Amino acid sequence: MSSLSLLLVLAVSGFFLLCAFKLIPVYSENQYIVSALQSLRDRDKTVDQMSPSEIHKHLQNFYTVNGVRSKGANNIVVERERNRSIITIYYEVKVPLFYNISVVLDFKNYMDSTKPDECCKAPVDYRPKAKKDD
Quick one: which of 27, 111, 125, 134 has the most CB atoms within 10 Å? Predict the structure, then answer.
């Protein structure tokens, strides 16, 4: 192997290692958010019986215990419909790689109280209702 090809292999390996070191913590933090949503189904009260403030408090406590620091994880939207509750946590994380190059990760976590075992990926066509300004 020539020195030029060795340098190229090292540069490519270094780039992928840099990406892994920057992105894996963000993905693991999202797994804690998914675990927080899943923990809602393991409570003595069902999600339909909990008020939105109780849901927020439970998720915040879970985040505190597990060290979730992402500001976007607090974008919790609780929608009530006739027979179900839908909890969504949509957020983006911008991770700077080097210089002026960044990666934006978009996470969409979703829980439907009628299908708690299918937590936490949103259906393709689902979007939360827009918040109305008072």
Answer: 111
Q: 85 Cβ partners below 8 Å, 6+ apart?
A: 47, 48, 78, 79, 112, 113
pTM of the model: 0.78
CA distance 25 to 107: 14
Q: What digits encode the pLDDT tens for the residues 15-71?
A: 999 999 999 999 999 999 998 888 888 777 788 888 888 888 989 988 888 888 888
